[in-house]
Amino acid sequence: MERATQFLKEAGVYYLATAEGDQPRVRPFGTANIFEGKLYIQTGKVKEVSKQIHANPKAEICAFKDGKWLRIACELVEDDRPEARASMLDAYPELKGMYAADDGNTEVFYLKNATATFSSFTAAPEVEKF
Q: Where are the domains of the chain?
């Protein structure tokens, strides 16, 4: 999990894929934070991505950097505790202009049953589960 988190942070931007009915939806994200031994991401409850995750928590993350890429297949589980939201905002203080831990909009999810696959064109894939 630490390796995947580091990769996401170094990539800066990763892409989160969800489903809306039978239509895949992909959008850029940039938060990755370990809290209480779990990898978390953050969004806003008013966004369509939040509705998609609540309807179908299966998701995939993809990031690319330095000729290598990471895919993480997982389930996203909401953690509605203020401590989890505050931890994310402390890790990304630039978000505090748009979000607050108690604003009723900030939402964090942790990755459950995650399979991270590290790939490149020059080496065999490496798989980690967390």
A: 2-129
> For the stretch 51-86, what's the b/e string if a residue is b when 16 or more beta carbons lie within 10 angstroms of its beta carbon?
ebbeeebebbbbbeeeeebbbbbbebeebeeeebbb
The CATH topology of domain 2-129 is: Pnp Oxidase; Chain A (2.30.110)
The sign of the torsion formed by the CA atoms of 5, 82, 108, 55 equals positive
How many angstroms separate the CA atoms of 122 and 37, rounded? 31
- pLDDT averages per 10-residue partition of the chain, 130 residues: 98 98 97 98 98 98 98 98 98 97 98 98 97
State the pairing for strand pair 14-20/23-29.
Answer: antiparallel
Tokens of 104: 């009723």
Residues 51, 52, 53, 58, Cα dihedral to 10°: 170
- Both tokens of 22, joined, read 């039978």
Instruction: For 78-114, write each residue's pLDDT tens digit.
Output: 999 999 999 999 999 999 999 999 999 999 999 999 9
How confident is the model at residue 22, as a pLDDT?
A: 95
